[in-house]
Amino acid sequence: MRYDAETLGLLGPERKAVPVAAWGRTAAAFVAGKPGLADLPTPVVTLDDGAVTDNLAAMAAWARAAGVDLAPHGKTTMAPTLWRAQLDAGAWAVTVATPWQLGVALTERVPRILAAYAVLDLGVLGLLSRPRTSRVLVWADGVDVVEAMAPHVADAAQPIDVLIDLGAPGGRTGARSVEEAVAVARAVVRTPGVRLAGVAGYEGSLAHDASPDSLERVRTYLAQLATLHTALRDLYDGEAIVTAGGSAYFDLVADALAPLHDPPATRVVVRAGAYLAHDDGFYRGISPANRDAGPRFRSALHGWVRVISRPEPGLALADGGKRDLPFDEGLPEVQAVRRGATGATEPLDGAEVTALADQHTFLRLSGDAESLAVGDVVRLGLSHPCTTFDKWSLLPVLDDAHRDQPVVVDVVRTVFG
């Protein structure tokens, strides 16, 4: 794949993944020199080119076989180049979750955008009311949301598409019953400037594991979403969109909703986004692959931290912390070591991350891991890609993070506020 090196321009210290030797050089010139992993500063998070390419193809193939479309969640990466790769691989749209993310997607001319929230920002409503080339579909879960939009969209150059957001007690947003959701849909139909375009939901807030009870709770909710769609058939204006599916239960979404997929009458759209980078934590544990029901992914994200202190037996301190590494869905896991930062990548047993401070990783050591020395670089598996990407405005892309001597082949630019 091609990423961002050719268009990024000059590099400097404002991007923490850039080594001193690359300051004042273009990203293209830096990559053309085929720098190795040892040339990068620490801490650093890298993206694995082979894993990204394989994950992209695996998910596209799954969607085709399952009979659904994809609208991957752009918030996972906030990397327009990766969005474009997903679209080029067949994704129908890109999903966003905030006014700022929507603005980035519009600026990048994403052709179809699912704005998976209630758009009430007056500036954004004004933007959507003007002529535009992107089709934008927004969420509404209450009559009050529709009424709040109404004065600001009545004179829209083209109707704003609205999906009725169905939730569940204890979940996130969303009408709490099918009956309430039907009332919201009727409010959309009678409101100038908006158009009823389908139904939407998110099952991921209802379960956090793959236990039988959790899976059944998800299935029950998806059946209710299908019921809502059926109840609204006579109210739709044109093709109806039925969308659900985070990154944990998209297989169940396909099982329940794919029978409805019949463009141009009804289009079923799955919004999973974490698959592109996957992880070595939360999503590895809850992925449909663990239920033999989905494609196999592999983590494309790795943290690399340098040991900077061995203050006592059994303890090492490394130079990455909460500002660099995700920790909201579990601490990083130790995978490998590069002795003296330049040695071949080799497995490291007996080391565990026990805590992260702002700029330090605490490593508890036992057995062979007691040989860990100041200057060694440790490879970490990371949990939760969404809170990994947002810590890095630039990620070096390695050919293969598992090679003895990985090489930087490109860089990825992210857009975070």
TrEMBL record:
MF term (GO), any: lyase activity
SUPFAM superfamilies found in the cross-reference section: PLP-binding barrel
InterPro entries in UniProt: Ala_racemase_N, D-amino_acid_metab_enzyme, D-ser_dehydrat-like_dom, D-ser_dehydrat-like_sf, PLP-binding_barrel
Domain (D-serine dehydratase-like) ranges: 300-399
Keyword Lyase: yes
Protein family per UniProt: Belongs to the DSD1 family.
Entry protein name: D-serine deaminase, pyridoxal phosphate-dependent
Species in which this protein is naturally found: Cryptosporangium aurantiacum
